[in-house]
Amino acid sequence: MAVQEDTRIKLMGAGLNMIQQALSIFDSDLRLSVSNRRYQTMFDLPDWLAQPGAAFEDTIRYLVTRGEYGAVDDIEDAVRIRVEAARAFVPHYMERERANGRWISVEGAPLPQGGWVTVYTDITEVKLQERLLQAHSEELSSEVLAHAERLAQTNRALAASNAALEQAKRELTEMEARTRLTTEMMPAHIAHLDRDLCYTFSNRRLSSVFPGLPQNIVGLPAREALGSVFDKISPWLERVLEGENLVQEFTHDDSGRRIRLALTPDRVGDGPINGIYVMSMDVTEEAQARAALAQTRKRELAAQLSSGLAHDFGNLLTIILGLQGQLARRADLPEDVAQAVGSTIAAARRGGVLLERIATISGTREMRLQPTDLSALLDDLQLMARPALPQDIALHVSLDELPPMMLDQGALQDSLLNLILNARDALADCSGEITLSARRLGDTWLELSVADTGTGFSEQALSRALDPFFTTKGSAGTGLGLAMVYDQITLSGGTVRLCNRAQGGAEVTLRLPFKPAAPRPESTAAMVLLVEDTDTIRETVREMLRDLGHSVIEAASHDEALAMLDLPGLGMVVSDINLGSGASGLELLRACRARGMARLHLMTALPASDALHTQARAEFPVLPKPFTLRELRNALEAST
Fold first, then answer.
1. CA atoms within 13 A of residue 251's CA, in its CB half-sphere
2. Is residue 179 part of a domain?
């Protein structure tokens, strides 16, 4: 379709150039939209005044200065009068003699969407005929008849040309309307800048890509329309005016959005560059997905590299611990040897802890996004963190009003707790404050920060703190804390930033994609069949279900539960995967599904890597144990 439209435009341009009349179309902003070759040659205009986007005011000033309208005492006043008349445009027809002695007729008509189309016809020959008729009306009667016939032919040709121009005007109007409608429907800002970096076209989508910027920008300089964004992109605009095609990405500081900017020079062949075509798109979600995918790939590579080493290293540590344990149990060891053995055992155990953390970072991990009340999550975090803080270190929480969001609660809580404990260590041996804050950044990011009043990061720490195994705690640290935070946050498509505060102390800022949760559905109480072979667990889950408004019947095995499936009013089944001897909960839920039941849930304490857990998760929702009342409610509501 694009090729056909381009061909159509070229054919129309060729047709307009064949018309003997001059044609110009100016838009509502008094800038040239369309003209034919005759328009430029009739008025001997330079190329830059015959290009789309040329200002009407500049054209009039050029013609007045050159004497097109005769002697003028005040050039600027003459220009102003004609521009004001153009702004209050009305249909008109007039004839005037030009400075070169030739006569033209000027016929103008307004366009529905603003602006006007004007046709200029050279009528010098007609004027000569009129004068000839007046001077020789009695002597040249035969010539009068001939001239009258020629005049009639000229009028007929003019009428045909006017009809063709009217058709061309209608088609151009329809084409412009279709083009504008198409561009305004696109999820991007499309615009054109002239060589002076003023907007000559915009599809009025600037504010949808850059919140807070104006919508109607045609005629405005880019610096005025874009504000601080212009300073960021102006070097690229200069390069495009020199002939480069550029595609760049940058972050809009006010909204945090990631923007892709495509810039193309406006030129025909090897001709001069007349301006810049601009397309701006919000690619924030794409950038977040790219970051998450990159982190997933890094995790997979790390897992491949470390799995074999960890296996062999684990075997070596087992041998070392075994041999050193044998030595430690001997009662006849000298004191210095016994101390060396104890130190070796402690170092080997620390190596085991490092192996576990490496496995956590590099191992397979799935995101578990669920509706989250951030205020409640931070309340729980405070309860966990306060006992680990000395009395002379205060913990403050600042939280903007936020809607429920889709978050990986476990990963976020682990990351924030890690940062709070790091801040505590930075305040060692002195009193101070730790501040945890959360705020919304536009409709793009959830920003959380942990700040302390300590001495701040060293230059080395600022550049390397996120690297695995980098630590400033000496033998007391593993160097994996912040690396784990970075891993968990980037796996969600977020970012981590470290800095020192101007008032003193360090600050770590986490940004996560802002994803509001869908409105919570109305509670749908049901009769629930709870299947669990451990009595104490069954009692605990039963009370949770009752707190959520459900009525509960219980079974301790697969066979016992199977016998209850035909009870009237049964609306939901919640079963453990392992049910002791006999069939599993997975087989039970398959039988329920075969009977047409829809609200089916499994729960388990099996690790995610277990084959049965993996198989069950492929067929039914699985809730890992242990779980809270909120986690149970979220899991059950997800299936309503």
1. 11
2. no
